[in-house]
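Entry 14. Structure prediction run on the chain below.
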Amino acid sequence: MSTRRSARLRDQPTQAVAAPDLPAEEPRKTTKRKAPATKTDDETVAKSRKKIEAAPKPDPKPAVKTQKARVGAGAKKTTTVAAQATAGATSLALSSLPQEILDMIFESIDDTKSLGRLSKTCKTYYALVTPQLYKRLDVWVSFHAHIAKLIRTIDPLLSIEQKKQLKKVGTYKGQQESFPSKVDQRKKPEIANFVKQALLGIGDPGKNHREIVHRYVDEAMKNMHNLEIVETIRLTEAIAKSLAEQRNLKALALRVNNVGERYTEAMAKIKNLQHLVLELSGYYDYTFRSEINIPGSLIRNSRSTLRSLIVDSDSFTSLRFNDLGQPGQATESGGEKLLPVLESFSMSGSSSMEPCDKETLANSIDFVALKELKFGSLSGDTKLIFEYLADSFLVAHQDEKTEIKLRNLSMNMELKTWGVPQEARQATLDAKIRFISSFDTLSSLTLDAYGEYRRDLPNPGLETSLLQGILKHEHLTRLKISTQGYRSDHDMPRLEPDTVSTLINGLSNLKELEFFPSIQHLDEIGKILSRGRNLTSITIITMRAWTTTEECHEQSKEFVTNVAHGVLERNLDSDVKAFKWEEHSTIQHVRIDYIVWELGSKLGKAKKGMKKANKFTVASKPKREVMYREITDHMRKPMDYGLDPTWMNRVAKDLI
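Output returned:
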């Protein structure tokens, strides 16, 4: 019996019903309710209706364009939101790095303007960048125009109460005009704790402005408690007291001439310094009646930690180095030195070296263990000191168990011995040369003011004993025979081509070379220098041998041409198809007096101060070429009225 049709339909599997393709509904436009027209508005409404009816009907195409614009706006909005989300994720990822890594990243950025702009992007970057922005306090005041910048630099480090007190001393440009009332007036800014380095160039702006300058620096020093490096050219009671209270102070440079007894008690509390500079102009022992003088106490309190010491004083004896330790604690022949961990020592400026100074130095410093040694301009009986050094290094050189660590040596070869016979002067020079010849570990050697002589005398050149002493240091990478100044009626010993050839052949590791060349043989000297295997920088000093700027520029270009062609014309018979300068020479810079040239196969894009690049070629082989250009203006340093940050930069790098 057949089943009913309704039963058969019930037993079939159910199928999904496809929805018909209906057009997408446009969003309804919501219109605002109009207020009912009043009798007074009837005429206005009627006129508006007539204008609407008279207006042409819009084309339907713009409606589509409007719809596309809406879609584009939505996409743009979505892209913006996505970009913000990505930036937020990147910011969070950067913030998740350890603080040490973040500090390394921001410390590698030298552009403070870029750091300042970065700190304004968000609170996270502000918190990360601010410690680096305020890490160093650098101020310089020498006259009235500098005071405004001083105030703007120091103002963020002061409390509101300090700012108000300073305004009472004097009103100056850069001071804050208004202050909030609902804050703690005595609260010290957190920024002051970020300052770790202070470069205080406190000059004398004049009698009327001296007080405000000193007060600003004194108030700032009261708030900075995490200083590690301080360099100052003026010492006040507030600065001395603040230095004594520092717990993290590791390096101090006193370049002052106003040291007095009133600072002795505070400065005697400073200890455990690693780097110390004492440039004490006009300092002499009889100005102190105290048993403990400032230089002696600073060195004595840091005996076990001091690693570098620079002494520039009118009187070396007045520094009283012999008071550093107990009598008999160290001897000239052996025993523990008074400064056992010293690695770098520099001495200059002394106007009266005495025989006892040699014993003091011998008892205080282990010169063989030094890595860097510098003797500036000295006068008096210096022969004994260099004879002692020559004997000490010769003994150490012959002893296989003793390691000579000295790598950098700088010596002023000028003999300031007025009234001393020529034989005594020559004996002092011979002692210096014997010291250079007593060992062979140097990688850098600088000889200043060597052998100045009158122009009416023949050129003495480089003494044979000195040349042989230099050649003993086979690992030299830097050799400078220069001067810091000269007299118009005097000249410096000039190197002949054979001497230059001996240096180039004997010092294969030489990278930087500076000397006085023989003017008559510049072409030949240029060809010889082109043979330097590792030379990267060449500097020759002519001492204004040419009268006009045009002559100087012409001669310098001719010298560079000789250096370049000395390389290009080498092995012309070889079958080298592609010539690359860097594969045949390492010379990159050539300086003649103040004019600087750059050489290379590709010099890159010209920067500010660089002239248009040209090229040297060989006529017989045009493919042999090298680019060159003058970069004098680019290399010239801008005039800076502040303190030279070289020492602070070096110490800061060492303390990392």
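The first strand starts at residue 136 and ends at 141.
Filed with the rest of this week's runs.
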